[in-house]
């Protein structure tokens, strides 16, 4: 039986946690966009569309949570690699602490 409420809730939760996923992955290593999509799927089992990820990356850069650099590839086509900034690391720590607080309260 399809439970529309839970499907919608899962979707909203995934969307709300996407900035946390991005910052968490980039705290481990620098990534280019497609690599980030693959890592989010591998680590969090969440499919992210390019049309969802790239606007988020732009927003996080405007908020100074991320930096980027162009890296030349052997193919000659440069890739934009994203990295977490010091501000991003600070925000990530607060996001993780708040998420842990919520989980602790839910689990009693």
TrEMBL record:
Protein name, per record: PadR family transcriptional regulator
UniProt xrefs under InterPro entries: Metal_resp_DNA-bind_regulator, Tscrpt_reg_PadR_N, WH-like_DNA-bd_sf, WH_DNA-bd_sf
Recorded superkingdom: Bacteria
Gene3D superfamilies per record: Winged helix-like DNA-binding domain superfamily/Winged helix DNA-binding domain (1.10.10.10)
Organism expressing this protein natively: Dyadobacter psychrotolerans
Matching Pfam families: PadR
The Transcription regulator PadR N-terminal domain, residue ranges: 22-94
């Amino acid at each position: 039986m399809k439970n529309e409420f839970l499907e919608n809730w899962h979707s909203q939760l995934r969307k709300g946690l996407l900035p946390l996923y991005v910052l968490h992955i980039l705290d481990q290593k620098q990534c280019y966009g497609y690599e980030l999509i693959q890592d989010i799927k591998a680590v969090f089992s969440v499919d992210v569309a390019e049309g969802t990820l790239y606007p988020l990356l732009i927003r996080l850069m405007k908020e100074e949570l991320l930096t980027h650099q162009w890296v030349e590839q052997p193919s000659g086509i440069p890739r934009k690699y994203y990295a977490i900034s010091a501000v991003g690391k600070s925000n990530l720590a607060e996001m993780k602490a708040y998420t842990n607080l919520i989980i602790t309260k839910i689990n009693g």
